[in-house]
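Quick review question:
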């Protein structure tokens, strides 16, 4: 009679040694995403941040946000490129924080995989750390979880949470917006991290395109376009608040431009945005044409070339545009704030046609 083999964690599909190697590989990247307030290093049960740094605030408010990258991770998996979606994750989190005027302080991440491939996990963390450095915040910790039997060996997902701080009397938002304010749009780097379920359905399921397809309109392969990292605006927005008066920001993510801008518009006002002020990138037109997607459906799903919007007094427009230009951010006046009448059913109205 053969000797029975007892169950083990490894037999269940969890490789602790691979997890330990992944931690060792990622440490060098986490060190590059730090701030003076970070206490200790990677490996503790919790990340530590010296809150005495907030003593300079009269009444500090902590802001918190959490997000993921959505089905864009499928593109990274299929292409075998793992060091870009971390930028997307950071952008989704810190740019939600900065909308209220908060300076991002630190982030933590959560990486879930079907099987730990140490180099892949380290590449994911590398991207997150690089994103944190671009955002001016620290990566103080995270978690890598292996879920064999629930995820395939090459499947993964990422999520993160961030904390920021803002002076209580400097919180930005709807209560600051006034009639006559200008709406400034800041260009996106592409699709960012929203609407990929629609994009994948159109480009892969309906059109049958491959990721290595060279697309003349894009000037590169489809895969390279779809993996273009989300632009991180946090330091640009904070610079804007230091150089001129800003009433509100709106991070254009899931739901599109109108729905996200509406979140910061007071009930008695509306934003009128002129589509002719800009030309969306070629990827938006491709998705629309290949999928026969109506414009309104595109606009409520994709960012249409705008990743962040700022609402500023009319007298601050020149200074705002100059600051953004100095920082290499393509920006333009896209609309204005007007009084809302009884006939205005929407907080945001899009007018005209996109410039060709």
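Suggested answer, residue by residue:
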């Amino acid at each position: 009679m053969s000797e029975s083999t007892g169950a083990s964690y490894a037999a269940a599909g969890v490789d602790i040694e691979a997890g330990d190697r992944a931690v060792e590989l990622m440490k060098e990247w986490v060190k590059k995403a730090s701030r003076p307030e970070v206490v200790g290093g990677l490996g503790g049960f919790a990340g530590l941040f010296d809150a005495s740094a907030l003593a300079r605030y009269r009444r500090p408010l902590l802001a918190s946000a959490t997000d993921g990258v959505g089905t864009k991770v499928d593109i990274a998996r299929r292409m075998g490129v793992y060091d870009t979606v971390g930028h997307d994750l950071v952008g989704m989190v810190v740019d939600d924080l900065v909308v209220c005027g908060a300076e991002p302080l630190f982030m933590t991440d959560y990486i879930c995989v079907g099987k730990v491939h140490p180099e892949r996990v380290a590449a994911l963390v590398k991207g997150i750390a690089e994103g944190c450095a671009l955002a001016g915040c620290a990566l103080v910790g995270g978690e890598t979880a292996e879920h064999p039997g629930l995820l395939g060996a090459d499947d993964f997902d990422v999520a993160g949470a961030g904390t920021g701080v803002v002076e209580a009397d400097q919180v930005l938002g709807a209560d600051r917006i006034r009639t006559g304010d200008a709406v400034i749009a800041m260009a996106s780097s592409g699709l960012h991290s929203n609407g990929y379920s629609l994009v994948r359905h159109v480009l892969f399921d309906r059109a049958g395109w491959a990721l290595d397809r060279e697309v003349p309109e894009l000037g590169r392969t489809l895969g390279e376009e779809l993996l273009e990292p989300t632009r991180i605006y946090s330091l640009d927005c904070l610079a804007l608040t230091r150089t001129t008066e800003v009433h509100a920001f709106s991070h254009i993510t899931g739901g599109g431009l109108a729905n996200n801008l509406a979140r910061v518009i007071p009930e008695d006002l509306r934003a009128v945005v002129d589509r002719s002020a800009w030309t969306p990138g070629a990827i938006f037109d491709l998705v629309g044409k290949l999928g026969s997607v109506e414009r309104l459906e595109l606009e409520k799903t994709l960012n249409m070339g705008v990743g962040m919007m700022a609402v500023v007094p009319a007298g601050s427009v020149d200074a705002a545009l100059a600051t953004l230009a100095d920082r290499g951010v393509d920006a333009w006046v896209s609309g204005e704030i007007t009084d809302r009448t009884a006939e205005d059913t929407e907080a945001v109205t899009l007018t005209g046609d996109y410039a060709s």
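Why it works: The chain has a mean pLDDT of 91. The domain at 14-44+58-167 is CATH 3.30.1330.10 (60s Ribosomal Protein L30; Chain: A;).
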